[in-house]
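During the reporting period the student researcher (J.K.) took over the structure-prediction task from the postdoctoral fellow and processed the backlog of single-chain submissions. One of the processed entries is reproduced below for the supervisory committee.
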Amino acid sequence: DRLAGYRLKAKGHISVETFYRFLILDLLKQCPKVVYLDADLILLRDPAELYDLDLGDDLLAAAVDPDFSGQCNGANADTMHYCQEVLRLKYPYLYAQAGVLVINVRQLRQKIRVSELLYMAESGSYRYSDQDILNVVCEGRIRRLDMAWNVLTVSQKRRMDAIQSAPAEVQEAYEQARKNPYIIHYAGSIKPWFDPNTDFAQEFWDTARKTPYYERLLAGIRTQERKAEFSEKVVGALRDTVKKVLPQGSRIRQAAGGRYWRMT
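J.K. obtained the following structure tokens:
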């Protein structure tokens, strides 16, 4: 009901419910801080440690997104252009991943209203939906979390290529975080409950066996595996065709490349 009248549409595989996190500022306004966690996570460390952080005047605490950082650093030239022309970020290599957040509710409510955040979302200008909006609104006032608190899985070649293109300090932080993750984040369209061989899948299934949903998850794997395999083949074929047909460095190739990165 609180979103009635808004025309919200998320991008790629993300659902419109991603914008619900904006409502935290109203629904939990009595709380000084809120720890927000995406649904596709495995916790290996007590998240109360996040809540105990003293944010001071910072609006958020979040880890740097190594995927986005790598795109900006050459993996996808269109992403840096997007940062400069649309997001207008001063520090694109410090772009925050929004799957794990500590929100300074009081400070953020002073900065912006929920209605303003939803108005930005309605514009349709943002490729990464609410994550882009939070980076735009909060830039310069984001406390950097150790990347171990939000270790992105690399089940897609595209993400692996991007992280390998990130600045050296970002790459190093990511590799160190993988050795001892506090939170594993199955971000992206490939999930361990679709493909049991994906990155960090063992940790997911070890946890799933302890829940009442284990058998239900197993029952859905075969169907999802077929869908994921078909999707990967289609996207791969389109990528290869674009490389062969469109001239290197052309605007149309850059636009097609940008579409590919958003699809995956």
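The committee noted the following: The mean pLDDT is 88.
J.K. will present the remaining backlog at the next meeting.
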